[in-house]
Amino acid sequence: MKFQKTLTLLVCLFALALFSQSYKAEKDKIHDIIHTKLKVDFNFKEKQLNGEEWITLSPHFYETDKLTLDAKAMIIHKVTMNNQPLDYNYDDFQLIIDLPRKYKRTEDFTVYIKYTARPEKVKQKGSAAITSAKGLYFINPTGLDKNKPTQVWTQGETEASSCWFPTIDSPNQKTSQEIYITVPNKFVTLSNGKLEKQTANANGTRTDYWNFTQKHAPYLFFMGVGEYEIVKDTYKNIPVDYYVEKKYAPFAKQIFGNTPEMLQFFSKITGIEYPWNKYAQIVGRDYISGAMENTTAVIHGEQAYQMPGELIDDNVQENTIAHEIFHHWFGDLVTAESWSNLTVNESFANYSEYLWREYKYGKDNADAHLLEDIEGYKSGQNYDKHLVRFNYDDKEDMFDAVSYNKGGAILHMLRNYLGDEAFYAGLNKYLTDHKYSTGEAHQLRLAFEEISGKDLNWFFNQWYFNSGHPKLEISYDYNKLRKTVTVNVIQNQANEFKFPFAIDIFEDGKRTRHNVFVEGKDASFTFPFIKQPNLIQVNADGVLLCDIKENKVLSDYIHQLKYADNYAHRKEALLEVAQRQDDKKAFNAIANAMSDDFYKIRILALENINLINKYSKKNVIAKIKQIAMNDLKTLVQASAIETLGKLTDPELKPVFEKGLQSKSYSVLGKSLVGMYYVDKALAIQKSKTLPVEVKKIIATPLTRIYLEEKNDDELTFIAGNVMSGMFLSQNKKIQSLYKKAFDKIAKSNNSEAIQNLADDIVSKGIQYKQYNFDQVGVNLLRQIVLKQKEFKPINRARNVEIVKTAMAKLLE
């Protein structure tokens, strides 16, 4: 499972997690599921599933004459064995079946259940990562919304598969499966495993038979139905398919095309060839999370859909694609034994993003991604949470920045400590020992210990079974007579950590690395030098997850920006130096950083350079012009154009004109804004010629222009982007821009714009209701009513009616 970062922002804004201290064990294994056979069809009008199930089980150890299955909000029509009816009790959550006799653990038996699944009546709630938990989702089932296709898809994690078929809904179960899916002929289907057969029916429907012979957890079962084009690819002899809507079929390989290479790379580093018979990816409308690793049938949210003008800048779904692929080893092949041990699924999938980016794009790129994840972990209320948590309020609480972000950072530290060869051999042993079964953190530790010969109890005790991270205070003592420097490391957090620690000493630009091991809350390390060091960089490789407090002066940061090995340190230095550009050396350091080998440093330098100060020279501006027109990364070009746009200099018009012809939407958007301030007429003329789909993608720069221009004709367009801009963006400038847009629309008499805004408020309020976003929506709608009071009653009546109708939907 990959959750969207926007969801974590909403959690910070609207939710307060409450944690109890009760122990949460996984369900006892009374029965083992052996095989699950389903026959299903759909009642689109009622949003229900008609199902038949043959579930084969055996007692796990003790003999028993009762079977308990999870089955949420269903109608149970019949339960039989060998065509003989069985007595049962059902309370809308569990189906308890009386078996005809006691069965021993050596005996298999098959129960038949005829049922109707009613997902709209499911009462369980979702989480930050998975915003709903009704298992089965009908999208535009009656086809009334002409702007949205009809689709059906499922989402099983954590325990929602039991909303569409009776099962033992626990990650410690493993079962093979076969599914017969009957749908109208116009739809294609996707499920786990192989499509063995398609049978045309006399009533205009078709039955697809999907067979999955290997064993996996019930939460990984998947069905997808809709009008899709299937774009075919391959990895070795394994089919790799991309299920996309027709509009995106020409771009499917640009979006998902790295999949075969990812499968090859992950097979190589784990030492285990991709273990399944196909790899398919489907995009679901209104999907409730980022993506989900259903075995051989991954579903992505519609944010995966991107146009070439976006993909040329950056494929925003690439990390997620890698994440879900790696789950096919960590999560699908070997599954977390309990939700408490979610780390053995999600921490690995998180770290796979680093591993892929390091392999494909280099260490700086991977380190930048790791830094974003660490910042995400630190920005939440996560410090006191253990990675492995047997005490939690709800299993859904496990899907957070500890299981994902911190867990990935911990694996990075473990890899650094063991070395690559031992780390990957340990992965192989863990996967081999527990394939098609379950695993937990202790088994992971034992695998690494057996491979490496190292005791790792200390590592797992402090990182897996405890909370927090080191908070370090660093000081330096120089002895000029002996030509030594002592680095003092004091830990200021409650828990005492021990850890390897990299220290770089720079003498005239030459770096010497010292690798030490910190034990105890107060440690000191003495190193010789020939000349007084220009800089001492602690945590020089950026591996340790920690906070560091030390005193540095401007010259330290200038040197760090130029010579530091790790991206996080160069970024830290650049942001510090940027605050002091009244100093000529600082300004020159930022200007030089615009030529850094790594594009994200170039972007940061362009975003922070001060072209107004007295040291700003024409040659620096000329350099930025060259970057704007020629940098190999379009995102860097866009940043350069935005920087030049602040100058509002008519001589820069040729730069913006060239940008308006770019294939990159980021370059196009920044060029439109830059052009607006030197040639308004040309910028507005260009904006009017843009296709609607492009306007939606570059909505933020267009909104800025339309608001500046006081172009009320475009309020209808602006209205559809206000909520995302105000609440889902983490950029304060964008939030402020869309707050201004909200106020303008709320005060307008543009009924169409108010309708669009009200619809968006209702949509977001329902989507994020569990974070009290419905209440936020009601408050916003009330603000619109208040702002409408300046109009005469006859003019505001229509608008107020629109708002009251929207409010009623949120208050239902």
What does this structure look like?
Its cofactor is Zn(2+). Belongs to the peptidase M1 family. With 812 residues, the protein is α+β, with helices and mostly antiparallel strands. Among the domains are: 8-18 and 30-326, Immunoglobulin-like; 338-463, Neutral Protease, domain 2, CATH 1.10.390; 471-551, Immunoglobulin-like. Helix content is 39%, strand content 24%. The chain contains 28 helices and 29 strands. The two termini are 31 Å apart. The model is unreliable at 6-20 (pLDDT under 50).
CATH superfamily placement of the domain at 8-18 and 30-326: tricorn interacting facor f3 domain
Our Rg estimate from Cα atoms comes to 29 Å
The CATH class assignment of the domain at 8-18 and 30-326 is Mainly Beta
Low-pLDDT stretches: 6-20
Q: Which class best fits the helix and strand makeup?
A: alpha+beta
Mean pLDDT: 94
The main pleated sheet reads as: 8 strands, mixed
How many beta-strand runs?
A: 29
- Helix content percent band: 25-40%
Amino- and carboxy-terminal Cα gap: 31 Å
Shape: globular
CATH topology (fold) name of the domain at 8-18 and 30-326: Immunoglobulin-like
Number of helices: 28
Strand percentage, roughly?
A: 15-25%
Q: Which second-level CATH architecture of the domain at 8-18 and 30-326 applies?
A: Sandwich
Widest beta sheet: strand line-up: 5-4-8-2-1-11-14-13
